[in-house]
Amino acid sequence: MKKIRHAVFWPPFLLLIGAALLSFTNRETFTTVTTNANNWVISNLGWLFSISGLLMVIACIGVYFSPLGNVKIGGPDAKPILKFGNWFAITLCTTIAAGVTFWGIVEPIYHVSAPPESLGIKPNSPEAAIFSMSSMYLHWTISPYAIYCVPAIVFAFAYYNMKKPFSLGSTLAPILGDKINGKTGKVIDAVCLYTLALGMASSLGTSVLNLAGGVNHLSGIASNPLLWAIITAAVTITFILSASSGLMKGIRILSDINMKAFYGIAIFIFIVGPSSYILNLGTESAGNYFTHFFEKSLFTGAAAGDTWPQSWTTFYWASWFSWAAITALFLGRIAYGYKVKTMILVNFILPAFFGGVWMTIFGGTSIHMQMTGGKLADIMAQNGPEAVLYAVFAALPFAKFVIPFYLFIVFISFVTAADSNMEAMGGISSSGISPQSPSPGIMIKVVWGVTVSLVGWVMISFAKLDGIKMLANLGGVPALFLGIGVLIALVKIAQNPAKYDRTTKVDKNAAIKEADETKAV
């Protein structure tokens, strides 16, 4: 019987609802508090986000070649509950969410038209184009997926091999020992629920602005809080219905559709877009990115008083950390039966490669349009970032078909990610979760779905893109410190995996249960 873990569920839930109510009753106070908190985060913790992100990359590479890399999640006889292709599709769609569909086109225009002043790059110059694309690689490829991968590995090992509870506190078991079974574990879970709720609200806000821009482009209906509320409700209802259909059925079907849609639109844009320019700019920018990888990863702008890294890199690292904590529960759970090095391939290497290809195609297309007189920066200044997306698509062949298809991708992308993360949020809020009984009740997922949607709508209604960034930054702070702890735990496990591995036989009941569920799809 699954019941609510009151000490885990209520604190983040009440805090989020209280913030939403404060925004309605005293908007000025709400805005002042969130803005001041956000400013403190980006001013004081940017350096720690940068160092932590880089260390996650180093850890993934190190573990891949260490003895831990050959350890199988669940024990030597564990059999995978998902086929490799399905596993990768679900993993990618869970982590990439809808942000890639928005920022892939919009973000390069910010960077090419307003590069960091401290670097002395002239706006809209060839140097700015290379800087813009290499920044996309920094923000969307290697480092982000390392941030996801490390906690996923540690949770999978702790849950299946160390036989620890379904709790984020379990990821710190190599450091804290049995303390994670008491108040300490509950505090960690409650804090991480709060961070993911903010991270998901941030992603929802991005999706809603994206969809609203499309509706405005197609119908002329103004992009305003009422339209955002309608879109938010539609998205929420859809992912709640999907979540109610069961883990393997709902998420597997959505991920398959999502992946095919991703491939389809990427291939189309590459063929009809400036293909040669995309390939050449991507190649040159990749060289710049890898040549200056450490410099870019640790760029804080402090020496020159440049706030660009705070506005962008810190925002992204905070967003990735806020998602990574709870998402690790889901990613770790579905890795059953695979080796740790295969986890690194699926959670780090392949998604990073996909992100690089996506950003090269979509970022290259928008940069080319800006550099050849498309005036996308002017469109963004006048009509908002969402208008840039549809200006780019409108300039391509078959726009009247591509734009509705793109809107479908945005919609399904967030629904897919929300579905899997609602599963994790519901699981960590409930008692009785185990390999034999892995899914939470539907009502707890509904509660979290509605709460996240409400917070997301409030922030975009009052602050739009700045609100999205504030949500990501605030949610990332506690997740950052958990991430550092998890990184230390991974190092301890990697030094002597056998010391922590308690698997003497596979948990056959868990494998059979999830295998049967998979076959039933």
UniProtKB/TrEMBL annotation:
<feature type="transmembrane region" description="Helical">
    <location>
        <begin position="344"/>
        <end position="367"/>
    </location>
</feature>
<dbReference type="InterPro" id="IPR000060">
    <property type="entry name" value="BCCT_transptr"/>
</dbReference>
<feature type="transmembrane region" description="Helical">
    <location>
        <begin position="260"/>
        <end position="279"/>
    </location>
</feature>
<feature type="transmembrane region" description="Helical">
    <location>
        <begin position="7"/>
        <end position="25"/>
    </location>
</feature>
<keyword id="KW-0813">Transport</keyword>
<keyword id="KW-1133">Transmembrane helix</keyword>
<feature type="transmembrane region" description="Helical">
    <location>
        <begin position="387"/>
        <end position="415"/>
    </location>
</feature>
<feature type="transmembrane region" description="Helical">
    <location>
        <begin position="315"/>
        <end position="332"/>
    </location>
</feature>
<feature type="transmembrane region" description="Helical">
    <location>
        <begin position="226"/>
        <end position="248"/>
    </location>
</feature>
<dbReference type="GO" id="GO:0005886">
    <property type="term" value="C:plasma membrane"/>
</dbReference>
<protein>
    <submittedName>
        <fullName>Glycine betaine-Na(+) symporter</fullName>
    </submittedName>
</protein>
<feature type="transmembrane region" description="Helical">
    <location>
        <begin position="446"/>
        <end position="465"/>
    </location>
</feature>
<keyword id="KW-1003">Cell membrane</keyword>
<feature type="transmembrane region" description="Helical">
    <location>
        <begin position="45"/>
        <end position="66"/>
    </location>
</feature>
<feature type="transmembrane region" description="Helical">
    <location>
        <begin position="471"/>
        <end position="491"/>
    </location>
</feature>
<feature type="transmembrane region" description="Helical">
    <location>
        <begin position="87"/>
        <end position="106"/>
    </location>
</feature>
<keyword id="KW-0472">Membrane</keyword>
<feature type="transmembrane region" description="Helical">
    <location>
        <begin position="187"/>
        <end position="206"/>
    </location>
</feature>
<comment type="similarity">
    <text>Belongs to the BCCT transporter (TC 2.A.15) family.</text>
</comment>
<keyword id="KW-0812">Transmembrane</keyword>
<dbReference type="GO" id="GO:0022857">
    <property type="term" value="F:transmembrane transporter activity"/>
</dbReference>
<feature type="transmembrane region" description="Helical">
    <location>
        <begin position="142"/>
        <end position="160"/>
    </location>
</feature>
<dbReference type="Pfam" id="PF02028">
    <property type="entry name" value="BCCT"/>
</dbReference>
